[in-house]
Amino acid sequence: MSFESFASAQSFFLWSTFIIALILGLVANKTNFCTMGAVSDLVNMGDAGRIRAWILAATVALIGVVALESLGLVNMSSTLPPYRGSEFQWGRYILGGVLFGIGMTFASGCGNKTLIRIGGGNIKSIFVFAVIAVIAYYMVDPFKELPSTWYQTYFASWLGQAAISLDTPQDLGSIVGNWFGVSAMTMRIVLGVVVAAIALRFIFRSEEFRKSGDNVFSGIVIGLIVLLAWYFTSNVAVNTEDGAFSMTQFYGEWDMMMDSEEGKPKNGSTNLQAQSFTFISPIGQMFGYVGSSFSSAFLSFGVVAVLGVILGSFIWTLISRSFRIEWFNSFKDFYMHMIGAVLMGFGGVLGLGCTIGQGITGVSTLALGSFLVFISIVFGSAMTMKIQYYQMVYEDEATFIKSLLSSLVDMKLLPAGMRKLDAI
């Protein structure tokens, strides 16, 4: 997809993102695709339907990425965020994932669900959005406007020690291929087929899931949406006298290609890279966009993705006549949502993504860190739900420590002898 000018290429880049994000918002609202809800269904009712939908979306995206990358149609070597970076930051992935899982439970949903709820008229989610926006902006500095980020100041020095420098990119294809002396691409195809086969067997062995139209539909469509974003952002190019340049290449040669700074986006060397949907850093980008007085230079994939999901959700509420203003039930409700927003803001940045950003988009790249974040998010959310349930049932008897220990026993992470409360 080559264009005769940078402006027309950027316009396609942003509009294509907005349209598929709008579809994402509409489908997620219509089918109640919610990763926090999926964990809740599994923990509280033993229903794995929405977990299967989540895994199906990741599997569809994974199959598509492996196929397109093998054909040279997507570029996974330099992405935003750097899913396949050679620094395996296991401490950051685990801490970020657990914090995010706890936070999304307190705040009634992940980053994507926050946008869906805003589109449906939920005022609580606007407050959650605002808190995440501020934290993500100052943690990431997406437009390179700050002298330093909160991550650099408060986290990098000690989390950097919990990292392993790999000889290869951290995707499973590169790691395993290096062990056996096989090319990374060949091993990505092999592992992609194996992982997809195992996942699809788990997903569709449930007759109840096979009969659940919304779950099957949402898993397939959301997986394809993530794939489409990878394809578009990898293939938009600008025609020049020296041939077709990717948008990041053109941006790097801006002074040679253009006569002025007019139309130059902020931090285009990063924000124009191949990318797909994730929602914590983009919510931070919204803070920068609003703070710039809505300057077009601050329009990015993330900004238009956020706007598209909200609008798509809103359109579905109009179609289904389900738009409803919702406010906090009590001060405790407000307090819990704000704590959840803080944890999601920090956790989503530390983990380099959210339930969509790592659990689907990141997993589609076979990045080892994405699988670790996914597991950590599920663990953090499930543990929090179990603790809350014990405290609700046993009230004053269920101290935090007793509830925590009993929850970890339920999750088979501690021996049964350490149980402090009867199982529920």
Describe this protein's structure:
The protein has 424 residues and is mainly alpha-helical. It has one domain (2-418). It contains 20 helices and 5 strands. The protein has helices spanning 6-31, 35-45, 49-70, 90-106, 111-119, 123-140, 150-159, 172-180, 184-204, 207-210, 213-235, 247-252, 254-257, 268-271, 280-291, 301-320, 331-350, 357-362, 368-394, 400-410, and strands at residues 2-3, 87-88, 164-165, 237-240, 243-246. The strands form 2 sheets. The chain has a 3-stranded mixed β-sheet. Helix 1 packs parallel to helix 16 (301-320), helix 4 runs parallel beside helix 19 (368-394) and helix 8 crosses helix 9. The mean pLDDT is 94.
Main sheet: which strands, in order across?
Answer: 1-4-5
Strand content range: under 5%
**Helix-and-strand structural type:** mainly alpha
Q: Could you tell me the radius of gyration in angstroms?
A: 22 Å
Low-confidence stretches: none
Q: Helix-strand pattern, N to C?
A: EHHHEHHHHEHHHHEEHHHHHHHHH
Total strand count, please? 5
Task: Work out the helix count.
Answer: 20
- For the termini, the CA-CA separation is 56 Å
Number of domains: 1
Please outline the major beta sheet: 3 strands, mixed
**Average of pLDDT:** 94
**Helix content bin:** 55-70%
Bulk shape: globular
